[in-house]
Amino acid sequence: MIFEHKTRVDIEKVNSNSFVTNKGMLALLENVACMHSDTAGYGIREIPTTHLSWVQLNWRVQIIRRLKYGEEITIKTWAREATKVSTLRDFEVLDKDNKTVCIATTRWTLTNIDTQSITKITDDVIEKYDPENHTIMPEFEFKKLKEPDTFSNEYVYTTQRRDIDVNKHMHNLNYLDLAYETLPEEIYNNISKGGDFNNIEVMYKTAIRYGDTSKCLYSFDGNKHTITIKSNDDKVLHCIVELW
After folding, report:
1. Distance, CA of 101 to CA of 99 (rounded, Å)
2. Do residues 81 and 14 both lie within one domain?
3. If residue 240 lies in a helix (H) or strand (E), which one and from where to where?
4. DSSP letter string over 208-234?
5. CB–CB of 174/163 below 8 Å?
6. Which of 203-215 are b and which e, b meaning 16 or more Cβ less than 10 Å from the residue's Cβ?
7. Which residues pair with 6 in a beta bridge?
8. Same structural domain for residues 9 and 113?
9. Res. 116 pLDDT band, cuts 50 70 90
10. Which one, 22, 44, 118, 145, has the greatest CB density within 10 A?
11. What's the rounded Cα separation, in Å, for the pair 24 and 70?
């Protein structure tokens, strides 16, 4: 089943030039994924009953045309195949002329909120989503992202109350905030002038919780800007963000 939702790009999703930010685009996609889960009976409102919550493992997003404030859009999303521990979900964003402006694929796992551990994705759960057998990115496959060997910029951040989501750890979109804070000044200034990255890949590993201090490390290999987010003692990898 393909779930559709029509909406507009609102003020919270755009920058000073009225263009949608990458975090704004991901928020639009995330909201529609939540709506789809609501209809399947495994949304946020059902957590107290099911004791189950979806946790995101990966993003891969490609922006084809950058939307502006107030534009009317249709967001399509659908579940794909699932294993016992993870499932895939794709997205397509269309403008008012029915042209594709963004595509994305994601990977999720199901957790038990009482034990804070991954739980098996049963056939009963995935059947409620009526999964499709096609992908919006047929040539892409999620693979483990690797930490760069060297880094040229560092940013340290202690998690605040505002960062915590319904799963009691840092909301997945806030990792993108950390990535942007870690970018060198000249790179970030170029973004503010309208030169944002049109490709995003994120791999989440270990959740950041309230009060944790994280070290964010920047590297550029000539093609991709990579931000590695680790515990302050370097022992725990939290997330890797790639932008290009």
Report:
1. 6
2. yes
3. strand 237-243
4. --TT-EEEEEEEE-SS-EEEEEEETTS
5. yes
6. bbeebbeeebebb
7. 74
8. yes
9. confident
10. 22
11. 13
